[in-house]
Design brief:
The protein is built from no helices and 17 strands. With 338 residues, it is mainly beta.
Amino acid sequence: ETNEDGVAPIIVDVQERKRHTIGVGVSYSTAEGPGGRVFFEHRNIFGNGEIGRVELRGTQVEQSAKVSLTRPWPKIDGEVFANGAFSNETTDAFDARSFEVSGGLSKRWLNDNLETRGAIAFETTRIRNTSLDARTNQDERNYFVSTPLTVIWDSEDDLLNPQKGFRASFNVTPYAGSDYFTQSELAARSRVHFGEDDLVTLAARMALGATFGSSFTNLPLNKRFYAGGGGSVRGYGFQEAGPLDSEGDPLGGRSKVEGAFETRVKVMNNIQVAGFVDAGSVSPDSVPDFTDEYFIGVGGGLRYFSPVGPIRLDVAFPLDKRETDRGFQIYIALGQPF
């Protein structure tokens, strides 16, 4: 019973959650082919809330393996992290094998909506230019030390199907080693709802990228910006929403601009139809020009709200099709695109 101050004791029985998780995922797109992902996560490894994770990903254009370890730092409301990753990229623009190790510190602010991250990383890459004019070139080896600094605002309420809030991130990464340059990226996304039971959803995203301190020719191929594909400009092939060489291979750029707008309408409790417009451009200039040629893709799709999240099917078409572009692209994945 309550005491004279109206307070009653409460007994809480706390039980630790299961420490291990195994997860798998699949995707498909005509731009990148079939894709898969598998991960293993071990929580509270040493008894202080550590999280260890091993993740394997693969598509026709990229395969990667990543190992990470994070440890909470309650005194600053943050965590310490360390990562190791290997990736193999086989694209029309280049072939590259990369290895990277990094470590850093993150801190959360403002009810965990704001996160700041700082790290130091070392990476080495063996890369080959696969364009027509460079096929006789030998592999090049690059070495870089970088210090990525990131600020993230994330008030979204769900990872796969956010309904409220917005997400914005800004990253600055200075590189030193085989060359000296700094890259920065800005990205944001959000959505609004209309009608009874949020019948209509309008969603939008944007992304900007810039490179300072290196010429277009000297910038490593795997550090250039590219546009095109399911996570970029739908309707165009992977990395192909930009300038191409004489063989039709992507050249990339030192800067990029991307934007997308999507309208989603519920037709049943668990089915949603969508129409979208994506646009993007890459440039050899260090900052976006905004007057360069834009590549625009349009299309539509279905969203089926399964127990594990929305399963997405999108079909997109390049608005100004070139001879090297496919007539359409298909994307199948779990989760809203943004």
